[in-house]
Amino acid sequence: MEIEIATIGGYEEVGRQMTAVRAGDDIVIFDMGLNLSKVLIHDDIQTERMHSLDLIDMGAIPDDRIMSELDGDVRAIVPTHGHLDHIGAIGKLAHRYDAPVVASPYTLELVREEIDDEGKFTVENELIEMDAGGTMAVGDRCQLEFVNVTHSVVGAINPILHTPEGAIVYGLDKRIDHTPVVGDPIDLKRFREIGRDGVLCYIEDCTNANRKGRTPSESVARNQLQDVMHSMEDYDGGIVATTFASHIARVTSLVEFAEEIGREPILLGRSMEKYSGAAERIGAVTFPNDLDMYGHRKSVDRAFKRIMNEGKENFFPIVTGHQGEPRAMLTRMGRGETPYDLDNGDKVIFSAGIIPEPTNEGQRYQSEQLLRMQGARIYDDVHVSGHLRQEGHYEMLDALQPQHVIPSHQDMQGYSGYIDLAAKQGYKLGRDLHVSSNGNILQLV
Ligand SMILES: [Zn+2]
């Protein structure tokens, strides 16, 4: 059986992931993502109404025109998890394929919202829910399987396409976490079994491939957060925290520790409401009954007014703006645009790292400066990454023993650490270690 892999997007950047695998006459697409930084760099762009081709020209979504060079039928579109760089182009591209979107429950809930928000195209692809551990037939001779992985969002899986030539393992995005705060540990046992049966190709998340050592577990971030928050127990002014709205495990920890230190947690900002609301709806998490979430600007401002009236020392706002996004809640607080007044000595916890990208770095710097000018004290980087570092990559290669490896989710510089470590494991560039770029097709069999 002929096996081809089209590396469509996310092979020259972190963002707009898309990969297609052709096994005989059947094709499966993994991820259809958005590169948000290519959108944010323009002022006030509304992507909802934009045409796919304009977004492709901006480098914001994958250029899927190369799909016409693959000789077969698309059987499924499979987003691995709910981050925008993996699902953010579904509204723009999925309607071009007569195939269902197959995803885990939380991811599918977010895909539904993407499709609802889409203002240019009508997306009528069937939506099929499949849990980790589930399988489905792809054509007559292949099978799709979901293996549970741990990442900074709930419901992350690695999809496997079992073909007569061996398994294709699509390894984006994950870290190896045996003690996640929400959800199950990574299913390394299943990866080892698949490795024993024979892996033809492993496509790997290289986000942190240049970092030595091991990515810590989410429980480490939870301990760190508990330590930071308990140190503030006696402070009688304002404490504000920000994190990735989709990072439900972290939001859960923030809510819990807020109550431990005698403050009422409250989620503020559009994406806080969106992601936490979706997690509650599908039963991935149970928040306290009285936890308030507000998304719309007016209701957020009303909540801020209530906090100011009843005393800042009684509340713990968890807000958007961890990357210093200009329109997010924390940045607005820094600019003094909300009814919440920051006083000298008030605490701001960034439970997030800076995504290493010049736009983010600049915006985050500005946001912190604005907060400091109001007197705020910053607690930075109370966080662990959701991506494997080098020791995790060694572990995965050891478990899977793939014949071919394709690094992904980085640019050329970002791949270098992975190329080095794969070479140490006996892989050779150009022979069984394939560095690709966007718009390539690799023929493996
Ligand atoms: Zn991700």
UniProtKB/TrEMBL annotation:
<dbReference type="GO" id="GO:0004534">
    <property type="term" value="F:5'-3' RNA exonuclease activity"/>
</dbReference>
<keyword id="KW-0862">Zinc</keyword>
<comment type="function">
    <text>An RNase that has 5'-3' exonuclease activity. May be involved in RNA degradation.</text>
</comment>
<dbReference type="Pfam" id="PF22505">
    <property type="entry name" value="RNase_J_b_CASP"/>
</dbReference>
<comment type="similarity">
    <text>Belongs to the metallo-beta-lactamase superfamily. RNA-metabolizing metallo-beta-lactamase-like family. Archaeal RNase J subfamily.</text>
</comment>
<dbReference type="GO" id="GO:0005737">
    <property type="term" value="C:cytoplasm"/>
</dbReference>
<feature type="binding site">
    <location>
        <position position="85"/>
    </location>
    <ligand>
        <name>Zn(2+) 2</name>
    </ligand>
</feature>
<feature type="binding site">
    <location>
        <position position="173"/>
    </location>
    <ligand>
        <name>Zn(2+) 2</name>
    </ligand>
</feature>
<feature type="binding site">
    <location>
        <position position="86"/>
    </location>
    <ligand>
        <name>Zn(2+) 2</name>
    </ligand>
</feature>
<dbReference type="GO" id="GO:0008270">
    <property type="term" value="F:zinc ion binding"/>
</dbReference>
<protein>
    <recommendedName>
        <fullName>Ribonuclease J</fullName>
        <ecNumber>3.1.-.-</ecNumber>
    </recommendedName>
</protein>
<keyword id="KW-0479">Metal-binding</keyword>
<feature type="binding site">
    <location>
        <position position="83"/>
    </location>
    <ligand>
        <name>Zn(2+) 1</name>
    </ligand>
</feature>
<dbReference type="InterPro" id="IPR055132">
    <property type="entry name" value="RNase_J_b_CASP"/>
</dbReference>
<dbReference type="InterPro" id="IPR042173">
    <property type="entry name" value="RNase_J_2"/>
</dbReference>
<keyword id="KW-0269">Exonuclease</keyword>
<keyword id="KW-0963">Cytoplasm</keyword>
<dbReference type="Pfam" id="PF00753">
    <property type="entry name" value="Lactamase_B"/>
</dbReference>
<keyword id="KW-0540">Nuclease</keyword>
<feature type="binding site">
    <location>
        <position position="173"/>
    </location>
    <ligand>
        <name>Zn(2+) 1</name>
    </ligand>
</feature>
<dbReference type="InterPro" id="IPR030879">
    <property type="entry name" value="RNase_J_arc"/>
</dbReference>
<dbReference type="InterPro" id="IPR001279">
    <property type="entry name" value="Metallo-B-lactamas"/>
</dbReference>
<feature type="domain" description="Metallo-beta-lactamase">
    <location>
        <begin position="15"/>
        <end position="225"/>
    </location>
</feature>
<dbReference type="InterPro" id="IPR004613">
    <property type="entry name" value="RNase_J"/>
</dbReference>
<dbReference type="GO" id="GO:0003723">
    <property type="term" value="F:RNA binding"/>
</dbReference>
<keyword id="KW-0378">Hydrolase</keyword>
<comment type="subunit">
    <text>Homodimer.</text>
</comment>
<feature type="binding site">
    <location>
        <position position="409"/>
    </location>
    <ligand>
        <name>Zn(2+) 2</name>
    </ligand>
</feature>
<keyword id="KW-0694">RNA-binding</keyword>
<dbReference type="InterPro" id="IPR036866">
    <property type="entry name" value="RibonucZ/Hydroxyglut_hydro"/>
</dbReference>
<feature type="binding site">
    <location>
        <position position="151"/>
    </location>
    <ligand>
        <name>Zn(2+) 1</name>
    </ligand>
</feature>
<feature type="binding site">
    <location>
        <begin position="383"/>
        <end position="387"/>
    </location>
    <ligand>
        <name>substrate</name>
    </ligand>
</feature>
<feature type="binding site">
    <location>
        <position position="81"/>
    </location>
    <ligand>
        <name>Zn(2+) 1</name>
    </ligand>
</feature>
<dbReference type="GO" id="GO:0006401">
    <property type="term" value="P:RNA catabolic process"/>
</dbReference>
